[in-house]
Design brief:
6-stranded mixed beta sheet, 48% helix, 20 strands, 695 residues, 12% strand
């Protein structure tokens, strides 16, 4: 059996392959571009393209594609073959540096938020040499950025790279003040944990809602859900284990560091977690991971559901974004060390993150805002929609001592005593974990827990990087002007803690008392996408994002419109699907059951004059629910028709929030009640018990 170490990264044009296939001169030049951002010479691009083509062809590739991430939320690709005509009628395999560096896909049909007119078709893809190319399904995939003919970013990679450069620039200024001149670059890194559901494909095919929307729009709870907590970290079923093993192998071939796999809280829910990587590479890998997860599932006659809330009544799926900052010398700038109270550099970076999260809590919230994620946030299964930071007792005590200008005594690491001599003793961590916190410090990184399972991690990290970069710039501006650095540093950290401690909360985020307390503190509670997304256009946010060159003003407004348009289109599709299922499947099925039951009553009464109390009441209840469903479907049809007359996108999103979604809830409520009293043989599609426990 082939060893993992032998095939890991076998489909990736990584550093090992580059060293082996490029000349020393070309390799060093390319590495300078990757590590330091120096311009790429066309002669280097030609040499890399030739080596990349030969390597890919040896792996069976016949085509290449510029792989990019438009604002659709998924990836895009256009495949071109390597073939070129030869004079004798045959073909030769060619691939030039120009073709590697630049592509020209049609940009007219991708979301642009008004940046481009639909008749203006030209767009460009530009090779991102910091993210390795790879071979998949007979094609060489080249990670690229995507922009319009006039230079606007039409994707999520360009702003992400800009945000990484912004935080690099400002962090270097801070490190220089501490006398650290050896560091040449600072990069953020991310490890995104990915939750997902697996359902049987044959059952999936019978559910129009799963096919059209990725979630169940109807469904009564089965007798058992997740209340026994027996699925979480439980024994993995053979069929799922086979899928996970197959998935690991495919991801490892692509150089993706899939590390952890386990059952999650809800039945049929699971998680995959990778080792952290540089943020833009982690973003590329996560997009690729989601695609591979879905493709591999089909081999096992399964469907991988990445929707944030595929089943009502059980936990939905998130994506925890473990974020940190490190130097090219290997120093983690968020590592507190053994004595965090004495680690001034760490405390300054910690203070910067605290201030950034407080100042730009609206940007962080809207960075994870989607129609799907709205079902999770605040639902006692995921963090509330209110942003706060969890630091744990020790760091909170350190900051409290600094604010009060008192010495911090500290505490020795406590040994964990389990009361059994044979078991080893080990030191407790300085903080517990708080799974209800949106933004939790977990030792040497922050875990941003609000992302939805289908989200691109780029959006959250763009705004997180940008916010921290802005605060680091403010800090550097002050400290660079100070005559007494140590005093200025102490005063700055103390002032920051005092002014922004409202964002720190170590308690239970699921408690209603916290939401009331957060309001008293002046924290924002942006419950839905319609509430959150318009804030990207607030002046303070526009000023900050444009000042660092992360977005132009036009790009910011376009993103508001793109994300709100995605929100309203998603809910509109769900609403129309509900109407279709209710009218064509559910109401006819319930009516058939009611009619058959009524006929049975008539027969029994004609034979024995029986009272038939149960059947008579059942028919009456079913008839009432049929009327309720019909009425609710009509109301939803009316709401959808009204929504389609609203031209202003912000107003349309508010109508979706206030009118369409409540109308959908009413229709679902009536249908789910009908399901509980309709004979199983009449129900038109697989119910929750089959879907959740059928794998």
């Amino acid at each position: 059996m082939e060893k993992v170490t032998e095939y890991f990264g076998s489909m990736v044009f990584d550093d090992r392959i580059m060293k082996a296939t490029l000349s020393e001169k070309v390799y060093k030049s390319l590495k300078r571009t990757i590590d330091r951002g120096t311009p790429l010479d066309i002669s280097v691009a030609n040499a890399v393209a030739a080596a990349m083509k030969d390597w890919a062809i040896d792996l069976g590739a016949t085509h290449y594609t510029h792989w990019f991430q438009p604002m659709t939320g998924v990836t895009a690709e256009k495949h071109d073959s390597f073939i070129s005509p030869a004079p004798d009628g045959r073909v030769i395999m060619e691939f030039s540096g120009k073709e590697l560096v630049k592509g020209e896909p049609d940009a007219s049909s991708f979301p642009s938020g008004g940046l481009r007119a639909t008749f203006e078709a030209r767009g460009y893809t530009a090779w991102d040499p910091t993210s390795y190319a790879f071979v998949k399904d007979g094609t060489l995939y080249i990670p690229t950025a995507f922009c319009s003919y006039t230079g606007e970013a039409l994707d999520k990679k360009v702003p992400l790279l800009r945000s990484m450069e912004a935080i690099n620039k400002q962090a270097l200024r801070i490190l220089k003040l501490f006398g650290n001149t050896k560091v040449k670059s600072v990069k953020t890194s991310v490890g995104p944990e990915q939750e997902y559901f697996l359902v049987d494909r044959d059952m999936w095919k019978q559910r129009k809602d799963l096919i059209m929307t990725g979630r169940t729009l109807f469904g009564a709870m089965p007798p058992k859900g997740q209340e026994m907590d027996d699925h979480y970290f439980g024994s993995i079923k053979p069929r799922v284990a086979e899928y996970m093993a197959d998935l690991d192998r495919e991801l490892w071939k692509l150089g993706i560091l899939a590390k952890t796999k386990h059952n999650e809280v809800a039945p049929a829910q699971h998680e995959l977690a990778p080792i952290y990587d540089t943020t833009n590479i982690a973003a590329d890998h996560n997009q690729l991971t989601m695609e591979v997860m879905q493709k591999v599932a089909l081999r096992h006659n399964l469907v991988c559901l990445l929707h944030e809330k595929p089943f009502a009544g059980v936990n939905g799926s998130g994506k925890h974004n473990n974020w940190s900052i490190s130097t090219d010398q290997g120093e983690n700038l968020l590592s507190p060390g053994e004595t965090p109270a004495e680690n001034a550099q760490f405390l300054l970076f910690l203070a910067a993150v605290i201030k950034a999260v407080d100042d730009y809590q609206d940007l962080l919230r809207l960075s994870v805002a989607t129609a799907g994620n709205d079902h999770r946030l605040g639902a006692n299964e995921a963090p509330p929609a209110v942003i706060s930071i969890f630091l744990g007792d020790e760091l909170t005590a350190v900051l409290d001592a600094i604010e009060k200008d008192k010495p911090y005594g500290g505490t020795a690491k406590e040994k964990m005593k389990l009361g059994v001599d044979v078991l080893p003793q080990f030191s407790k961590d300085s903080t517990d974990r708080n799974r209800t916190s949106p933004f939790a410090f977990t030792g040497n990184k922050f875990e941003f827990r609000m992302l939805g399972s289908s989200n691109s991690i780029s959006c959250a990290n763009i705004h997180l990087n940008a916010a921290v970069a802005e605060v680091l710039r403010q800090f550097a501006d002050k400290l660079e002007k100070s005559k007494d650095f140590n005093k200025a540093l102490h005063d700055l950290i103390r002032k920051t803690i005092k002014e922004h401690k409202r964002i720190i909360f170590n308690g239970n985020g699921y408690d209603d008392a916290w939401i009331a307390e957060a309001e008293k503190r002046g924290l924002m509670n942006l419950k839905t996408t319609a509430d959150a997304m318009p804030h990207i256009c607030d002046k303070k946010n526009v000023d900050m994002l444009t000042s660092h060159g992360i977005f132009t003003e036009a790009e910011i407004f376009s993103r508001r419109d793109i994300m709100l348009e995605n929100y309203i289109k998603t809910v509109n599709i769900e609403a129309v699907t509900m109407i279709d299922m209710a009218r064509k499947e559910i109401i006819p099925a319930v009516a058939k059951f009611a009619a058959d039951t009524a006929n049975a009553v008539a027969v029994k009464k004609s034979v024995s004059k029986a009272a038939c109390k149960y059947e008579t009441k059942l028919v009456a209840d079913l008839s009432e629910l049929i009327d309720d469903m019909d009425s609710a479907a009509a109301a939803l049809e009316k709401a959808v028709a009204k929504f389609r007359t609203i031209d202003v996108i912000v107003k349309a999103s508010e109508f979706i929030r206030d009118t369409v979604l409540p109308a959908m809830d009413r229709l679902r409520s009536a249908a789910d009640k009908a399901e509980t009293i309709t004979a199983e043989t009449y129900w038109p599609f697989p119910a929750y018990d089959k879907l959740l426990f059928g794998v």
